[in-house]
Structure prediction request, 248 residues.
Amino acid sequence: MDSSEPSNLREALKPFWALMQADLESLFKSRITYGWLLAGVFLTVLRVLTAITLGTTSRIIAQGLSDFIYVWSMLVIGMTASTVASEAGEFADSIMSKSVKRYDYILAKFSSRICYIMAMYSLTTTVLVGVSLKMLRNDYEIYGLIASIFFVALVLLMLTSLGVTFSTVISNTVISIIVLLVLWYSMTFFFPLIDEVRFLSPSNLTSQLPTLIRGIWNGEEWQTAVGFAAISIASTGLSILHFSKKDL
Prediction:
């Protein structure tokens, strides 16, 4: 009986893995992926080359990481806020044929989007950090640099979770994208004006990146990290709960 449990678990996970792998394969083969990577590497190299004489690693890496907040976030919003809404008909057919369970589908969508966004972030950031450390005057502190990369990754994780959640709750793709855009830019530009929620603003984090990379902490960073993580977990839970009861 014990030996059959791993086999049963593998069988139960098969639909999830199949959906996740198919979604990831589609994402990585898309033209958006190649365009994103080419543009990201080009902007990174250009930024470093234009800052060789006066630039420092803390300033240039902070600028490169900030691109994910102000520039590449548009791609993340478009790719996540259309995740479920754009496939509602296809999934309804799968449910009717009993080939896919609801939680398999929604968890696969969350997982594939998170893996994709983190892979794109990791590849671009590796180039950014590698070129900056090689060609610029170093003024970084290793733990501050690692923390900065981690915090921006948390921002992208939060945005991805919110995007899939809105796509689950809102059946219209265009409305889902617009709602997420409004929320994202409210958090980015208006939250810093309100003391009580300033720590949840991505732009507040980007303003701290240069000093954080140099190893200077102000104590607010971990509050920001916990806030982003809590939003990600709450939105994911809400999405799964809503999708499990949603009429298709």
